[in-house]
Design goal:
With 237 residues, chain A is α+β, with helices and mostly antiparallel strands. Helix content of chain A is 36%, strand content 14%. Classes of the chains: A alpha+beta (237), B mainly alpha (122), C mainly alpha (114). At the B-C interface, helix 2, helix 3, helix 4 and helix 5 of B face helix 1, helix 2, helix 3 and helix 4 of C.
């Protein structure tokens, strides 16, 4: 194990560049420890995000050696080959500054995909009965742990190639809602995700599923959306 | 509308089996798509009679053509097997990215290529 | 402008055509490997195909499935890799479909009926 790390960090906006810092290497160090060390001890002008630092909030997502990950959950020993690290902001999103991405479009697409619940009952009615072992509930449960960290969005080439593509997270959320028996906006949601840059634009590259820190499978959700779009539109005709 | 150029991924983010499967599927599809009209045109020689078709086939009797034919058979087998994997992902129960089928694709393509080469030579 | 219904239809027919092609390609690969033994000759090929209506029907279905399947893939490629517009891609796809249909059916005619 080397005693120091050579860390290249992206500084600036889209038209910035990598700046090298030397960081002392410690045991059980995470990449978040490294970034924090740089900002507190070497260059206080470095901008980066984190919050919980225990792998629950997803704020620390960025590109480490070219792959989107949570820095708080990434041990340096696992990614620093030859004592070198490269840190950059997430791909496919505008850069606010240094390692901070502008998440606006990510959440805009979430809304465009109708990624919010719409119910029809009031508090005066009895509770909805949802069968936990039903196929629908299990499908929803498989995807509801998403915390909107944008690692999948950053990893997806279709997002890069088709700027309007709703992206894996928004589509995954739409799928979970379509499997929620209490939701009443099913038809509108299927229409929302079946547009030109909707679920059918997915090429099953699988980068989203490969990189999701919560081990969700947007690829599965999108496959489900494709099937559902056919059955739902058949009924509408 | 954001007109700034956004950061993109490079090969490091693409270096996993499901992505290679996509790449093989796309490249093989493109090559086959470009080949198909040529193939139809070649067969169309039959309209001018057996001699015309035969003349064309004699022309393609060279090693370079045979090697290209073998390559195309390989790509066809790979594209089909990869496509079946996608159909299973999209229509079957979710069991992950079916990386086992990526291996099957490679194996099937290799076996088909070998069968073709053997048939060609013996 | 592309509507959800269009997108769904394109996806649906793409998948249907791919299922048809999976079957056709398997058969075709077997035919290729069988036919290529000992080299190809015009006489051999035509002896098998000429007047063979089952053969003609099979390859007509094959050509039709190709004419649906191939342009869909090409349209994706020109949009994503070359950045073409939706209209440009659709036009390209339509032209490809026509080309494959005409050349393909012509070649089936050539080996079965000519």
């Amino acid at each position: 194990m080397t005693t120091t790390l050579e860390v290249k960090v992206w500084r600036g906006k889209e038209d910035g560049g990598f700046v090298s810092y030397e960081v002392p290497r410690l045991e059980s160090q995470t990449v978040l420890d490294v970034v924090t060390h740089i900002q507190r001890n070497i260059d206080p002008s470095l901008s980066y995000r984190y919050a919980c630092r225990v792998g629950m909030c997803g704020s620390c997502a960025m590109n480490v050696n070219g792959k989107a990950r949570w820095t708080c959950r990434t041990h340096v020993s696992k990614v620093a080959s030859h004592g070198q690290l490269e840190l950059a902001p997430l791909s496919n999103l505008p850069v606010v500054k240094d390692l901070v991405s502008d998440m606006t479009e990510f959440f805009d697409k979430w809304a465009r995909a109708r990624g919010s619940f719409q119910g029809a009952k009031t508090r005066h009615e009895p509770f909805a009965l949802v069968e936990p072992e039903s196929a629908q509930r299990r499908a929803a449960d498989a995807g509801i742990e998403c915390i909107g960290c944008a690692v999948c969005y950053s990893s997806c080439d279709v997002v890069s190639w088709r700027p309007d593509f709703l992206g894996p997270a928004a589509l995954n959320r739409a799928w979970t809602l379509l499997n929620d028996v209490r939701d009443v906006a099913g038809v509108e949601r299927v229409m929302a995700v079946s547009g030109d840059a909707g679920c059918h634009a997915c090429h099953t590259q699988g980068s989203c599923t490969e990189r999701c820190p919560k081990h969700l499978a947007p690829t599965a959700a999108i496959a489900g959306l494709k099937r559902l779009s056919v059955t739902m539109l058949k009924r509408q005709k | 509308m954001n007109t700034e150029k956004k950061r993109r991924n490079d090969y490091r983010a693409r270096n996993h089996p499901a992505y290679w499967a996509f790449l093989v599927h796309r490249v093989s599809g493109l090559v086959l798509a470009l080949f198909l009209p040529v193939h139809f045109w070649a067969l169309g020689h039959a309209i001018q009679g057996e001699a015309s078709l035969d003349g064309f086939l004699r022309f393609t009797d060279r090693p370079l053509f045979k090697f290209a034919e073998w390559g195309l058979v390989l790509l066809l087998a790979a594209h089909m097997a990869g496509g079946i994997r996608l159909l299973l992902i999209e229509f079957g129960d979710w069991t992950g990215l079916r990386k086992n089928l990526i291996a099957v694709t490679a194996g099937f393509a290799a076996a088909t290529g070998m069968a073709f080469a053997l048939a060609l030579m013996f | 402008m592309s509507t959800p219904l269009t997108q769904v239809r394109l996806w649906y027919w793409g998948r249907i055509s791919s299922m048809v092609l999976a079957f056709c390609v398997l058969v075709h690969l077997a035919v290729i490997i069988y036919a290529v033994r000992g080299g190809l000759s015009g006489a051999e090929v035509l002896a098998r195909t000429h007047g063979n209506l089952a053969f003609g029907l099979f390859y007509t279905v094959f050509v039709l499935a190709c004419a649906v399947h191939v342009p869909l893939g090409l349209a994706r490629i020109v949009r994503e890799e070359l950045g073409w517009s939706e209209r440009g891609a659709n036009l390209f796809a339509a032209l490809s479909a026509l080309l494959l249909l005409v050349l393909g059916l012509r070649s089936v005619y050539g080996v079965v009926l000519a």
